[in-house]
Amino acid sequence: MLRAWLVAILLALSAAGCAGVKPYQRENLSRRSMTADRDKGERRFEQHFRGAREGADGGTGEPGGGCGCN
Amino acid sequence: MQLTAPAAVLATLALAAAATPVRADGEVAVRGAYYKERSTRVEQPMMDARFDAGDDAELDTHVLVDAITSASVSSGAAGDPFTEHRWEFGGGYNRQLGILRLGGVARYSTESDYRSIFGGVNGQLDLADKNTTVGLAINGGHDNIDNAGLQGGLAPRIEGTLDTLMASASFSQILTRNLLIGVTYDFARLSGFQQNPYRTVVAGGVAERERHPSLRQRHAFYANAKEYVPATRSTLIAGYRFYFDDWGIKAHTPELRLVQALPREIALAVRYRYYWQSKADFYKEIYDSNDPMVEPYLSDDVKLSHFTGQTYGAQVDVPLSAIGFSGDRGDIRATALFEYVIQNNRFGDGVIAQMALTVPFRY
After folding, report:
1. B contacts of A59 (beta carbons < 8 Å)
2. A23 contacts in B (CB within 8 Å)?
3. pTM to 2 decimal places
């Protein structure tokens, strides 16, 4: 599993090396649906609810927990 | 004393906001969230605010209250219905320093039987002319738990603390003018009281209090890809999370989202999420023995069982300019979300509904 992730990261880095996208070419990348397709409050509520109903957590880069949901 | 920490956080945020220039942008979002399943209902009004703090910095803060109504304090067992409230205050600060973005977060949460304080720092580095971004975050938390909400009040007092350390590493890469990918790895180490102070399990023919290990180490890998399709003005988002921990739980979570731009800047999003998890090594519905030498850990917590789930969702986002408002009012966004959650366990299916208004402002 770890090897697959490393390969994916290396592939992405190699792709970056040969095809950089210039700032003036990023109109579509800066659209709201590409940068923040979900609002902060929506994500926080889902993380809270999932933390109280599922055994898995994380992967968001943001801390969950903080409630008596054990 | 419970108000000391949130008051300090809010005072710090207010002072930082007061130090900002007179012309800057900000946004306030007011949201109501609702969740309902067979025996539990959650209502959560919340407010988020974001402010520019100088040319290269941003400040955000939120406050929310949970009203949880459940069949019992142990969430799902038989008993008298009860309602509990939880208040949460949080904030963050980010500053851009050239290609480096540094930030900090703080959060305080309090309810009758649980108090939590959490804080952390994070950094993001832009590389290759901002085609690549790498990030690192370190967070720590301290929780106090007791059984103050016990119905009847005859059982002995149970108290505990829980310390959490979380580290997160992220990487995102622009691949084309329309395609972005990202990976995130989160590690969390939880040490201390991790059982529910109210829940019991049948062991050796009698009802015993849950016994969970005091240490849990959790790992989550998440990868996603976002592609914008100019011909149809659609955004496709695919994500997958693999999770495992040292309690024996593994979980797979693939997810697909489609955000479709409609005329007048209206956006419609649909979502599908699948969830699968294995059970914890020590999970059983009924234990033959309650002897700690035979069964050191006892739990029939549904979250630790094997189950699958699915979520279907739809969301619509409408700027008020689309319905005839002009000027500043036209920039206000109204959002409505509905999701149906299938849970193949004894929690049963649930629904989520959210309504939000996001108001941008200048000051």
Report:
1. 184, 186, 220-222, 241, 243, 253
2. 129-130
3. 0.88
